[in-house]
Amino acid sequence: MPTRILFVDDEPGIRMTLPAILQQHGFQVTAAASVAEAIQRLSSQTFDVLIADLNIGEPGDGFTVVSAMRRTQANCVNIILTGYPAFEHALRAIRAQVDDFIVKPADIPVLLQTIEQKLTNPERLHFASNQTLAEFLKQHRDEVIARVLRRMKTDPHLSKLPLSDQDRVDNVEAVFTDLLFRLQSESPEGAANGHGSAGARHGLVRKRQGYSLSMLVDDTRAIDAAVYEVVRDNLLDLDVSTLLQDLSRLNDGLERQLQQSLQAFIGERAA
What we know:
This protein starts with a strand and ends with a helix. It has helices at residues 12-24, 35-44, 61-72, 88-93, 108-120, 133-139, 141-154, 165-184, 198-208, 213-233, 240-270, and strands at 4-8, 28-32, 49-53, 77-82, 100-103. The protein contains 11 helices and 5 strands; from the N terminus they run βαβαβαβαβααααααα. The chain is elongated. The protein is of the alpha/beta class and 271 residues long. It has 2 domains: 4-120, Response regulator (Rossmann fold); 133-270, Globins (Globin-like). α4 (88-93) links the parallel β4 (77-82) and β5 (100-103). α10 (213-233) runs antiparallel to α11.
């Protein structure tokens, strides 16, 4: 029986060409254009290989298909296609969830070799704990704050202020709590009620500590970079099917807080 491949990509041109090439090499290929169609296919058919684009309609949708395939057909080889070579480091970090990845446009000989190798020598996959980003950051809160402090103390501008470690991070902890609240909230506004003043308080505190407007931006960058580093170093613990969407919400929360900080900072100065 020929090797059965489920190919998932929302680009019509790629769905026409790549499956045809694979069929010429003896594979039996079923194509799907969306996550819903892919899940319907894998629920009713058995496959040996899944080849899915990283972004099928929405960022990271390919991981949703991989997760569904792993739950229903554990022995299936999962390969992700990505048009972003810069994402290679992150993809290597989550190799325990995906058997391999191919950068678009796919090098056909490399793709064929990868399929053959993975089918001949299947690897034992690590099953991640699949935490949401909010759950993960709550658990790694102290590590994130420690990295923020380290960045503040090495930043050429922030490090010039004669502040104690506690003064540097006290309000950052409140800002971080607000971010977690936003991530856990079902509302797009997240912390609009009850928690939304953390950004404003941050701006007022930093103004009294001698910050400039550009330093407030540096604060936000330090938090963003610290979160990224902790996520990068622990990708296997995260639910990668929702990670990109959660990171987008986190970045939106940081931007909202920065706006609140700047408004409070400028408002007090004008008063």
